[in-house]
Amino acid sequence: MSEDDNNMEEYPTEIHDYLTAFEKSLGSVDEMLKTMMSVSRSELLQKLDPLEQAKLDLVSVYALNSMFWVYLATQGINPKEHPVKQELERIRTYMNKVKEIADKKKASKLDKGAASRFVKNALWEPNAENEHTSKTPAKGKKRQ
């Protein structure tokens, strides 16, 4: 028997696809962590503006707490009853605040001068010339 055959007997075949996807995801996380660890934190932070620094810190701490969540689950501990759940919720709250700040930064600014000119030109103002032409029939041609 090969090693793969032995591994297949250890767990139900229904979860094989899930385990394969999980293993692939772990490989991706490992690659990203190696990339992040290859650059010093101070060097990385120098290249980022404060908003980007906050995003990086939040993503890092969220990933770390998520991995701890998975660790707890693998140890048979219910992570929903562990303080890590409140920590993840707290981090999500801050992520939403940073997202709101980023959205406000991206939002278009109102040019009050242009808006007032637009409204002023869009409004119809009657004057003597307009009143005279409005009394002529709008439909049909004039009879001679």
Tag the structure with descriptive keywords.
about 140 residues; elongated; mainly alpha
Describe this entry's structure for a reader.
- The protein is mostly helical.
- Among the domains are: 15-47; 49-105.
- Helix content is 72%, strand content 0%.
* Alpha-carbon distance between the two ends: 108 Å
* Biggest sheet overview: none
Question: What percent of residues adopt helix (DSSP H or I)?
Answer: over 70%
| Strand percent estimate | under 5%
Oligomer: single chain
Low-confidence stretches: none
Q: What is the mean predicted local confidence, pLDDT?
A: 81
Q: Count the strands? A: 0
Order of helices and strands: HHHHHHH
Structural class: mainly alpha
Number of helices: 7
Shape: elongated
Rounded radius of gyration (Å): 32 Å
Q: What is the secondary structure topology, with strand pairs?
A:
Blueprint lengths: L2 H8 L5 H23 L2 H6 L3 H25 L9 H23 L5 H11 L5 H7 L10
Helix pairs in contact: 4-5
Question: How would you summarize what this structure contains?
Answer:
With 144 residues, this protein is mainly α. It has helices at 3-10, 16-38, 41-46, 50-74, 84-106, 112-122, 128-134.
